[in-house]
Amino acid sequence: MKKIKKIFDFFYNLIYPIKCFDCKKNHYYFCPDCLKIIPNYLNNRCLFCGVQSLESGDLCIKCKKLYHLNNIQIFTYYDQEIIKKLIYEMKYNSVFLIARDIGIILAKKFKSLFYKKNCLLVPVPMHKAKIKKRGFNQTYLIAQSISRYHKIPICNDLIIKTKNTLPQMSQRNFLKRQDNLKNAFSLNKEKIQDSKNKKIILIDDVFTTGTTIKSCAEILNNYGFKNLNALIFARKSKKY
Asked: Per DSSP, what are the bridge partners of residue 120?
């Protein structure tokens, strides 16, 4: 398999040369030098209400109870041209190898999130019609990259997207986002028993209002999952 992957990567790079989207350096979509100057998301406030966090990424007590999530870690801010370009090229121009690089960035930055052996990576699901159109689910590819780095299992079909919704980023207010995701997810009951007692880490690429992550956490909580967390690459800015 490794030889096949190397051959595939060689020809892919030959046809589509990899260059940093910012400085154009070869071999990287996001080179180490450019990565150093990208501001890290502070992760020092509750993502939903803005209350100061005691620990990095922790939600406040009220929001933990309300949204069933313990911790959400975010790497950077979405409102930077290089980050917007990375996300756009990955999702809409099918540069799927960007997801691999994002996964490595997250795996290195948030090592402490994976220290327990009972972790399970759960990518935010995409409807099968969108997967067919795009050719891949970028959150699954991000999770694969993290999984390879930390040797953590993935459950790609624990949560299933049953409703082909509009893109969340196209919904301009909170109520529309909520309505867009109403009854959009279901749980694969065959996977519950093996997953329920694990530390679940939901994987997503962009956090806007948190409606998607909250919807995923809600359905998991309804089936008895308790240790729910999330890891996300970028967040759209919000002023408290």
From this structure: 200
Query: Is 159:122 a contact under the CB 8 Å cutoff?
Result: yes
Q: What CATH architecture applies to the domain 41-235? A: 3-Layer(aba) Sandwich (3.40)
The amino acid sitting at 224 is G
> Is 90 exceeded by the pLDDT of residue 16?
no
Nearest to 163 by CA among 206, 128, 211: 128
> What's the token pair of residue 177?
């986002």
> pTM, whole model, 2 decimals?
0.89
CA distance 98 to 86: 7
Closest CA to 205 of 55, 98, 131, 66: 98
Q: Which whole number is the average pLDDT over 143-150?
A: 96
Name the burial class of residue 201, with classes exposed (0-12), middle (13-18) and buried (19+) by CB atoms within 10 angstroms of its CB: buried
Q: Where in the chain is the domain with CATH 3.40.50?
A: 41-235
Q: Which string of DSSP letters, residue by residue, matches 13-73?
A: HHHS--B-TTT--BT-SS-HHHHHTSPBP---B-TTT-PBPSSTTBPPHHHHHHH--SEEE
CA 232, 93, 129, 236 dihedral sign is positive
The overall average pLDDT reported for the chain is 88
Kindly report, residue by residue over 32-48, the tens digit of the pLDDT.
898 999 999 988 999 99
At residue 61, does pLDDT exceed 90? yes
